[in-house]
Batch of 2 targets.
Target 1
Amino acid sequence: MDLQKHPQQPDTTPRSTELRASDADRDRIVDLLHEAHAEGRLAADEHAERVEGVLTAKTLGELERFIQDLPAAHQRRAAPFSAPVRPATGVFPVDPDDTVVAVFSAAARKGRWRTGRRIHAYAVFGSVEIDLSEALFDHQQVMIKAFSVFGSVEIRVPENVSLRGTGGGVLGAFEVDPQDSPDDNAPVIYVDGWAILGSVEARPMRGKLVKDILDRVQRTVDRSMRKHLGH
C-alpha cells in the first residue's frame, strides 16, 4: 500500500542572525571596534565608519559583519553570570535596614553610604532618589522595596552589578532595566514593589563601577568569621 506523503512545512523559525539587535548588543560591538582601533587594526576613518554602521544596525547578523575580520569575533567568550529573577527565600530580613520616605517632599540616599540587605522606599506625592553608584556594599544581595503613590522612586545602580525587577504598576509605571554582571561576585540588586498612579524606575548608570568587588566581599566574610569565632 502506498503511503501518502505529506509536504514538509517550511521552517519559519528565525535564524540567530535575523534576530533584532538590542542596545547591549550594539554596545558590545562598539567596544570591540574601540579595542581594534586602539590595537592599530583599524584606521581612524574605518573605525568611525564602522561605529556609525553599528549604531544603525537592526539585526545581529548586521552587527557581526562589522567585526567578522577581527580576531575578537572568533574568540570564545565565557557565558556571563545570570542572577536569578527572584532571590532565594530567607536571604533578606523581614525588617528593613534603611527606610527612605518622601511625603509631599523629596528624599535621597546617594554619595558614599553603606547599604544594608533590605531598603524600603516610600514616595507619596513626593520623590525618592536612591543612588548606589558610590555606595559601599557589605552584602552581595540587596533588596529594594519601592512604593510610589502619586510620586516617583528613582533607583540608579553601577553598570557592573546585576539588576532584577519583579514589581508592578496600577495606573502607573514600574520599569526596571535588568542586567547581568560578568562577575559572579558582583552585587545583585533586586527591586520590588508597586507604582500606583506614580512611577518606580531602576536603571544602570553608564561609566559608574563598583570597584574592588572581590576585596569587599572577602572583607565582609573575614569580619563575619572573626565575629563568629569571638563567641
Target 2
Amino acid sequence: MISELGLRDRKKAATRAALSGAAARLARALGIECVTADAIASEAGVSTRTFHNYFSSKEEAVLAHFEESVHDWVNLLRARPEDEPIWDSLEHVVVQIVTDPAKPLEETAVMMELVETSPALLAKKLEVHLRVTRLVGEVIAERTGTNIDTDLYPNLLHMAVGSACKVSLDLWMSGKSGASGPEELVRDAMRQLRQGIPQP
C-alpha cells in the first residue's frame, strides 16, 4: 500500500511538472495571451480535463515553478543541521539554489522577464507570493526561536536574504558584474548583510 501511494504521488508530481513545463515553454514562445489550457494539455500529452485537475488557470501553471522554488528553499533550510547558525544555513541554501545545474539561471531570467511583462502573470504571482513565501519565514522563526506573527526578526531576515538573492542574480544576468559567477555575488551579498550593509 505504501509503495502504491508513493508511486501515485510520483506520477502526480510528474504530471504536474510536465504541465507546468509545457505552459512555460508555450508562454515563452507565444506569449501568455496566446496560450490556452487545451494547448498546454496537448503539449504535455494529457487531456484538458487533466490540466484542470492540477491548475485553475494557465497563469497558475506558468507560475508553478515559482511556488516550487519556495518549497525548495523550505526543504533545503529544514535539512540544515539544527545547531547551525541561521546565517550560515541561509547562505548555504542560497548558494545551493543559484548553482543548481538542473535550474539554469538563463531560464530563470527568461521566466522572470515573462512574468514582469504580463499584467495577468504579475497579478497571479502576487497571489501565489502571499500564499507561499510565508513558509520560508516560518522555518526561520522555528530555527531562531522567534514568532513570525509577532517578531520582526524572521520577517526581516526572510525578506533581506530573498532580496539579496534577487539583486545578485539580476546583476549577474546583466553581464555588468566583474564577479566570477553568481555564487561570488551571493556570498558577497550575504557578507554585507551580516555586517549590517556598511557604507562603502
